[in-house]
């Protein structure tokens, strides 16, 4: 029987299983097969690394209370910061123009700051300024817009020592909030931290070489208007060395440094020296700045309009409550406040005592990432570039060197190198196949109305998309073994294992080359992975040649644990941040596909080093079957049991479905003011793939919801978009309903029209409405908008409407309402358009975001019907379009 088995293997029937154990024991050039227990141990070690990453996030400092203050002089007191958060959030939602934002919050901040000023140490000069400002600026954010603001408010505090350098460090937070949200984490938590940092510094005998400027800005949610007003017009905005900007897109956890610079590497070095438990990543910076995550912070305004470098921090974990009515002080952990305060206070003092220019190197960038919050690895971009180049050379050299020292004979170097490239391409194709299968699975779940089944329980992601990302590459590798074994004319699968180890190494070297060419600095992380892979590759061969039996697998796998740990950590931070975002990223396939692709890519990156081991593992079929069974059971559980329900109404950890509903009046006018249409109803903004179907059994009105199909015909779909997000939120629904009562109508009046020549027309327009208005403009084809009265004539186009350009004006005023006058100058490019009855479509929308007119009676009754696992936001809005 043994002879029959050996003959069958030699004939190729079972060749993919490799030689028999007895054969490998006799032939020193054929190492022992990997035992089942060894491979399972490797798998468990990789999974345990994920547990270590999770554990590192749970450790936060014990919060200090007022009782602890005497025994901890000069320390940040979390209880005091939390008190400010509670008092300000109890004022309620604070959109620009609301009583809470423009009066009550100002009153509380002024009183608190005056108290700090009165108790300040005599060595400090503490000045307080109430700043009211108006301005305009273009902002390339979302689809692009021009921001126009009037009478926005800031509270600014300046702290100086006896002797000042004349320079200052700026610290910024914002106290306003979005509609219907108390804004405790976004961004009162940061304001509470800065108030406590200010108190501790001014009541402690510390030296300040540079002044400190604390900006409590009142219009960040209004697309960064208050910070623009400060940095372009305030008297203390000059001679700023750097800014510490604090914001949030989550509740609690650790503050993540996700942007630093530009240039000025001394800032990152200051952070590394001052902060005890760092959390920072070059990958987070490049992902955020790429625009993949729909958001922005005041850091951008300080950078672009003030030319000030800085550090941008945010709470990023657990963003389920972000921008909802659930964002209350109850969900602001004292331990997170303590952690943030313990980091920001020493960082502020460190920056307050830097001496520029000797301590402030302005040129150069850094590559950086933290290791489980224990240490911040940082290196200059120049050194990173050099290391990347050396790693590429080392990787290719090792592959070439192995081609001449291969443990099998009869294969020429050129042939071996050719087969390495082939193996690398095969691995790449398996990645593509795996991603496509995961995407197909995502599409299937979407078609079955099972999208976001992982939303509340993110661990399901690994069962749903992670297991296929493990199984498919492993199985495809086993299938390919006979082909590559035959191509190499090898006696055992050890040759194929070496080939795939080198193919893996080559595959991961390519992104490093890409980073060298494109200057994508986060590709340095691939250098870390390839560097350890080179060590594992060499160690495996050295142990093999020393005839140490099965220990070769240990020396191969252990060096790869550090790259696995690093990738698990990046995956953890990424998923904790991005999963809640998927609940507000719009309807359609996008959220499910994004998670499928990310999971597949990250899991393959983590477990890819195990693929070559399959060639020396006899029970690969059994492993694949067990994983496949787990996967199938997981899919069935998610589809047929409540465990697959996406949302949760848990009081401690809510993960609700979001709904934004606008009670809307829509009016379309044609040429010469002819009324074309007059509609009223409820506009349902679909924020996730399950909207609006998930609540039809709770809200009877949703039975009459129809998809909005006016987008090709009407500017911005004939709907009152609050933000220029027609590209991202293209799928919405309309429910016909009664007309809301409009207390302040929105309208445009053509005040004057002047023909400067045959080719140029100037229109002067008056806009009237509530304190939040949006104006959308689109010249017809053959006509071009060449300049206007906004932003010193700077024109920023938005999303295309068919073949036509559009322009979005984001207008608001905080007080003293009045009409907005502006002019536009058009050029007739196509002479045929000179005879057109109109040359521009223009629309105005009014939004009632606060006060007694925010919600109509009908809207209030509609929102009251939603189930407890949802969170709603709504207001009355109007849309009126004209053809001028």
Automatic annotation (TrEMBL):
InterPro entries: ERMP1-like_C, ERMP1_1-A_TM, Fxna-like_M28_dom, M28_fam, Peptidase_M28. The keyword Endoplasmic reticulum applies. One of its GO terms (molecular function) is metal ion binding. Residues 417-636 form the Endoplasmic reticulum metallopeptidase 1/1-A TM domain. GO terms for cellular component: endoplasmic reticulum membrane. The chain crosses the membrane at residues 33-53, 382-402, 423-448, 460-482, 494-517, 523-542, 554-575, 595-615, 627-647. Residues 154-346 form the Peptidase M28 domain. Pfam families: ERMP1-TM, ERMP1_C, Peptidase_M28. Gene3D superfamilies: Zn peptidases. It comes from the Eukaryota. Residues 1-28 are annotated as: Disordered. GO terms for biological process: proteolysis. Keywords: Endoplasmic reticulum, Glycoprotein, Hydrolase, Membrane, Metal-binding, Metalloprotease, Protease, Transmembrane, Transmembrane helix, Zinc. It is a multi-pass membrane protein. Residues 654-882 form the Endoplasmic reticulum metallopeptidase 1-like C-terminal domain. Its cofactor is Zn(2+). It is found in: Endoplasmic reticulum membrane. Belongs to the peptidase M28 family. This is FXNA-like protease. It comes from Lygus hesperus. The gene is Ermp1_1.
């Amino acid at each position: 029987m043994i002879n029959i088995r050996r003959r069958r293997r030699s004939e190729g029937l079972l060749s993919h299983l490799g030689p028999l154990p007895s054969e490998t024991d006799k032939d020193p050039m054929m190492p022992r097969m990997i035992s089942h227990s060894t491979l399972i141990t490797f798998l468990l070690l990789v999974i345990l690394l994920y547990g270590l990453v999770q554990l590192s996030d749970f450790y936060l400092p014990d919060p200090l209370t007022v009782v602890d203050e005497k025994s901890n002089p000069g320390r940040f007191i979390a209880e005091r910061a939390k008190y400010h958060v509670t008092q300000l959030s109890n004022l309620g939602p604070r959109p620009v123009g609301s009583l809470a934002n423009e009066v009550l919050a100002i009153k509380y901040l002024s009183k608190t700051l005056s108290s700090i000023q009165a108790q300040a140490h005599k060595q400090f000069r503490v000045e307080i300024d109430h700043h009211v400002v108006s301005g305009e600026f273009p902002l390339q954010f979302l689809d692009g817009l021009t921001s126009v603001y009037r009478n926005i408010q800031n509270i600014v505090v300046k702290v100086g020592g006896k002797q000042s350098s004349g320079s200052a460090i700026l610290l910024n937070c914002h106290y306003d909030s979005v509609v219907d949200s108390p804004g405790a984490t976004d961004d009162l938590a940061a304001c509470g931290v800065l108030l406590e940092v200010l108190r501790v510094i001014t009541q402690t005998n510390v030296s300040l070489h540079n002044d400190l400027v604390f900006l409590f800005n009142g219009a960040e949610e209004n697309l960064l208007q208050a910070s623009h007003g400060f940095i372009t017009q305030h008297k203390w905005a000059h001679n700023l060395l750097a800014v510490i900007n604090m914001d949030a897109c989550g509740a609690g956890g650790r503050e993540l440094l996700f942007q630093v610079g530009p240039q000025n590497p001394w800032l990152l070095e200051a952070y590394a020296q001052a902060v005890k438990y760092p959390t920072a990543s070059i990958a987070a910076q490049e992902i955020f700045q790429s625009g993949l995550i729909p958001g922005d912070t005041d850091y951008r305004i300080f950078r672009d309009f003030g030319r000030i470098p800085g550090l941008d921090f945010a709470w990023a974990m657990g963003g389920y409550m972000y921008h909802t009515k659930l964002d209350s002080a109850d969900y602001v952990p004292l331990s997170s406040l303590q952690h943030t305060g313990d980091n920001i206070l020493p960082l502020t003092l460190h920056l307050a005592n830097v001496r520029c220019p000797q301590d402030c190197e302005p040129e150069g960038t850094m590559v950086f990432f933290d290791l489980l919050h224990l240490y911040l690895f940082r290196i200059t971009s120049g050194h990173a570039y050099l290391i990347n180049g050396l790693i590429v050379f080392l990787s290719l050299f090792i592959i070439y060197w192995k081609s001449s020292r291969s443990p099998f004979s009869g294969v020429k170097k050129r042939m071996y190198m050719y087969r390495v490239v082939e193996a690398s391409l095969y691995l790449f194709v398996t990645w593509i196949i795996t991603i496509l299968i995961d995407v197909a699975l995502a599409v299937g779940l979407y078609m079955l109305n099972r999208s976001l089944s992982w939303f509340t329980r993110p661990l399901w992601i690994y069962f749903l998309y992670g297991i296929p990302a493990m199984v498919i590459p492993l199985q495809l590798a086993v299938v390919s073994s006979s082909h590559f074994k035959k191509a190499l004319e090898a006696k055992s699968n050890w040759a194929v294992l070496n080939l795939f180890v080198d193919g893996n190494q080559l595959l991961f070297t390519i992104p490093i080359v890409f980073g060298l060419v494109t200057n994508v600095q986060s590709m340095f992380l691939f250098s870390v992975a390839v560097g350890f892979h080179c060590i594992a590759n060499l160690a495996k061969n050295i142990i093999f040649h020393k005839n140490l039996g099965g220990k070769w697998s240990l020396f191969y796998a252990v060096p790869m644990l550090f790259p696995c740990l690093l990738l698990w950590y990046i995956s953890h931070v990424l998923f904790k941040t991005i999963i809640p975002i998927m609940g507000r990223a719009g309807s359609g396939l996008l959220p499910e596909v994004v998670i499928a692709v990310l999971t597949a890519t990250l899991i393959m990156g983590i477990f890819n080093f195990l693929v070559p081991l399959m060639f020396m593992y006899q029970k690969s079929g059994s492993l694949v079957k067990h994983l496949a069974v787990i996967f199938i059971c997981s899919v069935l559980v998610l589809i047929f049991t409540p465990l697959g329900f996406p949302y949760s109404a848990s009081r401690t950890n809510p993960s609700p479905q979001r709904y934004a509903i606008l009670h809307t009046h829509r009016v379309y006018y044609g040429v010469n003011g002819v009324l074309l249409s007059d509609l009223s109803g409820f506009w349902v903004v679909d924020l996730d793939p399950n909207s609006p179907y998930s609540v039809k059994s709770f809200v009877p009105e949703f039975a009459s919801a129809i998809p909005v199909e006016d987008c090709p015909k009407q500017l911005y779909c004939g709907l009152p978009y609050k933000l220029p997000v027609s590209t991202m939120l293209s799928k919405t629904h309309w429910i016909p309903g009664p007309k809301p009562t409009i207390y302040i109508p929105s309208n445009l009046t053509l005040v004057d029209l002047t023909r400067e020549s045959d080719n140029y027309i100037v229109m002067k327009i008056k806009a009237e409405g509530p304190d939040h208005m949006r104006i959308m403009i689109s010249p017809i084809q053959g006509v071009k908008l060449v300049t206007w009265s906004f932003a010193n004539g700077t024109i920023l186009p938005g999303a295309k409407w068919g073949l036509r350009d559009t322009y979005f004006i984001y207008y608001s005023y905080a007080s003293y309402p009045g009409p907005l006058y502006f002019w536009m100058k058009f050029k007739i490019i196509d002479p045929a358009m000179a005879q057109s009855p109109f040359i521009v479509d223009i629309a105005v929308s009014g939004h009632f975001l606060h006060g007694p007119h925010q919600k109509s009676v009908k809207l209030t009754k509609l929102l009251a019907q939603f189930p407890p696992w949802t969170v709603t936001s709504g207001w009355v809005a109007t849309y009126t379009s004209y053809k001028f």
